[in-house]
């Protein structure tokens, strides 16, 4: 797809995330921003989906396991016209969009999540069912790097490798920061790619903010026939298209200040 | 009970290709015929119950009807959060089958006992909990569970449970089955304690005539039956091979208390401490106050 259009969509999504974070004075802006380019490429270029028919059985599925960063998912779904973007104004408001994405709360959300380490199993179950029924749709799972601490994530990785689910694509938003510290300080994941390979997955790595790079890798799926695919997307927590307000543990928690908000939105115009 | 379960599932799976039995690496010598006939409808997920539960949720999203199977603690406690979030929160059509209720795995020790499962699962909105009282109820419960859309937990004993029903009773989820009529006391039993309740009734027959009821469904509890049949009784007693906290006894107590039914009442369940001993099921029941003789004695004391 036209790179300029993808970038424009990604920037709209970033702006929506900052609006939500600022209005709701919400946490988790950093991890929402780190996966914007990945989601934008998926929803605007790779996935077979139709916002007019959100439950079309022939759609590709996306399970958003890092549901605490659902501002990104809500924003991209609104940008893709799954629902009216005014709904974003209700984020974390009473009776509005919940702070962890919830199934069917708005069109386009496939699974409720929030507790880490659940999403890959659900995606794997969908992929297994698709194989049983000889259906060709793809199943994407967006994981955080922090949730790769969870044993259940590795149970799913082991299972998908064993069953050769090449209709399953995991994408790790590898921003190297988890809730209370750097991955390397809390629980080192490296050699991360080797771990996935050892479990029978075909691995690719990419700069998670290089839209062309992400698209050119995901356009050819599976990475290898007979193996599940994983894309380790090296990202920057809090990435806004410019390297401001980024790569800090605090971006997991602290809502943007007025100054940051103005500066960022000013930079985006 | 597990033979009754798998034989019933065998028949149902033949009619419905969406039924998929998923095991956490258990079922040796039980599932072989099923696997031979329905290889596509069987999956061994390995010793990974959390993933097994998430996988079942994903399959249910695609219209499959998965049943996840393991020993009670591994299929209800290890994966409790997956049951809550992935299955029940999303209202998915997954059945959970636990084998080894109470002390069925007696010699294996506490890790393998199923004593807290009903208590924890009962707190989750939208789940149905069934503990069939004999092989016939197991068959009927399996059929009923698969007719029901949504999460159902079926709590089974293991092997060799006695037959209580000589003829097939009418079985409805949420409706207790009166096994014997009686006017003095009512024994409400579930699962593996149903035959024990009949033994208790027999021991007490010269003192009290006991109405024995199979309360096979713990959630939703049959509050109509409790309300209608409790009045005029000298005492109501619940029997379950489960902690006295949280299961059938608690569910019945809630109904009695909230309806101001002032009646002598006692729960017979496992005590609030870990056993220091292990042994066969009968021995463990005796050690933990769940033999027919002990229960009968306690009932007499309670009424007097």
Q: What does the model show?
A:
The complex is a heterodimer of chains A (269) and B (304). By secondary structure, chain A is of the alpha/beta class. Chain A has one domain (3-268): Thiamin diphosphate (ThDP)-binding fold, Pyr/PP domains (Rossmann fold). Helices cover 39% and strands 12% of the residues of chain A. Chain A contains ten helices and seven strands. Chain A has helices at 3-24, 29-34, 36-46, 70-79, 119-132, 151-162, 183-186, 192-198, 211-218, 258-268, and strands at 61-64, 139-144, 168-174, 177-178, 181-182, 202-207, 229-234. A five-stranded parallel β-sheet of chain A has the order 1-2-3-7-6, sandwiched between helices. In chain A, strands 4-5 form a two-stranded antiparallel ribbon. In chain A, helix 9 (211-218) links the parallel strand 6 (202-207) and strand 7 (229-234). Chain A starts with a helix and ends with a helix. The mean pLDDT of chain A is 93. Chain B has helices spanning 2-15, 32-37, 49-61, 72-76, 80-88, 117-121, 135-147, 194-203, 223-230, 248-258, 281-287, 292-303, and strands at 19-23, 42-44, 65-71, 95-99, 128-130, 152-156, 177-180, 185-189, 210-214, 217-219, 235-243, 265-270. In chain B, helix 1 runs parallel beside helix 7 and helix 8 crosses helix 12. Chain B has two domains: 2-156, 3-Layer(aba) Sandwich (Rossmann fold); 177-303, Rossmann fold (3-Layer(aba) Sandwich), CATH 3.40.50. In chain B, 37% of the residues lie in helices and 20% in strands. In chain B, the strands form two sheets. Chain B has a seven-stranded mixed β-sheet with strand order 2-1-3-4-6-5-10, sandwiched between helices. In chain B, strands 7-9-8-11-12 form a five-stranded mixed β-sheet, sandwiched between helices. The two termini of chain B are 37 Å apart. Chain B has 304 residues and is an alpha/beta fold. Chain B has twelve helices and twelve strands. At the A-B interface, helix 5 and helix 6 of A face helix 3 and helix 5 of B.
């Amino acid at each position: 797809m036209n790179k300029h259009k993808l970038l424009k969509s990604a920037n709209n999504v970033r702006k929506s995330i900052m609006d939500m974070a600022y209005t709701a004075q919400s946490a988790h802006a950093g991890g929402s921003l780190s996966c914007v380019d990945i989601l934008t490429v998926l929803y605007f270029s790779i996935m077979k989906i139709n916002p007019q028919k959100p439950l079309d059985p022939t759609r590709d599925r996306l399970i958003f396991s890092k549901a605490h960063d659902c501002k990104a998912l809500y924003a991209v779904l609104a940008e893709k016209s799954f629902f009216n973007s005014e709904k974003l104004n209700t984020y974390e408001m009473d009776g509005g969009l919940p702070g962890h994405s919830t199934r069917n709360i708005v069109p386009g959300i496939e699974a409720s999540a929030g507790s880490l380490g659940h999403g890959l199993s659900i995606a794997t179950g969908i992929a297994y069912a698709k194989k049983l029924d000889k259906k060709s749709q793809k199943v994407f799972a967006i994981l955080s790097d922090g949730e790769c601490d969870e044993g259940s994530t590795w149970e799913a990785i082991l299972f998908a490798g064993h069953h050769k689910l090449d209709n399953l694509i995991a994408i790790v938003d590898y921003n190297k920061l988890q809730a209370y510290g750097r991955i390397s300080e809390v629980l080192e994941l490296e050699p991360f790619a080797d771990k996935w390979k050892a479990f029978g997955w075909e691995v690719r790595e990419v700069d998670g903010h290089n839209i062309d790079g992400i698209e050119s890798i995901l356009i050819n799926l599976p990475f290898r026939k007979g193996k599940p695919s994983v894309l380790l997307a090296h990202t920057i927590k809090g990435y806004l298209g410019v390297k401001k307000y980024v790569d800090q543990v605090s971006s997991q928690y602290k809502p943007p200040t007025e100054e940051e908000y103005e500066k960022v939105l000013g930079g985006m115009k | 009970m597990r033979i009754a379960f798998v034989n019933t599932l065998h028949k149902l799976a033949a009619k419905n290709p969406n039924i998929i039995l998923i095991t956490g690496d258990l079922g040796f010598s039980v599932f072989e015929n099923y696997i031979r006939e329905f290889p596509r409808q069987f999956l061994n997920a390995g010793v990974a119950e959390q993933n097994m539960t998430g996988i079942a949720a994903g399959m249910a999203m695609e219209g499959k009807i998965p049943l996840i199977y393991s020993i009670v603690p591994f299929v209800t406690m290890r994966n409790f959060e997956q049951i809550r979030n992935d299955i029940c929160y999303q209202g998915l059509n997954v059945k959970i089958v636990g084998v080894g209720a109470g002390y069925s795995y007696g010699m294996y020790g506490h890790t393998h006992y199923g004593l807290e499962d009903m208590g924890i699962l009962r707190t989750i909105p939208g789940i149905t909990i069934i503990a069939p009282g004999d092989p016939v109820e197991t068959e009927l419960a399996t059929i009923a569970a698969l007719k029901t859309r949504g999460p159902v937990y079926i709590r089974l004993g293991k092997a060799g449970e006695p037959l209580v029903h000589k003829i097939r009773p009418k079985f409805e989820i949420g409706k207790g089955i009166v096994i014997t009529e009686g006017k003095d006391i009512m024994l409400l039993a579930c699962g593996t304690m149903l035959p024990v309740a009949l033994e208790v009734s027999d021991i007490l027959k010269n003192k009290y005539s006991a109405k024995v009821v199979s309360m096979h469904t713990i959630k939703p509890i049959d509050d109509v039956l409790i309300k209608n049949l409790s009045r005029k009784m000298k005492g109501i007693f619940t029997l379950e091979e489960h902690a006295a906290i949280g299961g059938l006894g608690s569910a019945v107590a809630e109904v009695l208390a909230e309806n101001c039914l002032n009646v002598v009442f006692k729960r017979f369940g496992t005590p609030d401490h870990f056993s220091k001993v292990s042994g066969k099921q009968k021995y463990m029941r005796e050690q933990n106050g769940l033999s027919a003789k002990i229960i009968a004695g306690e009932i007499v004391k309670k009424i007097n």
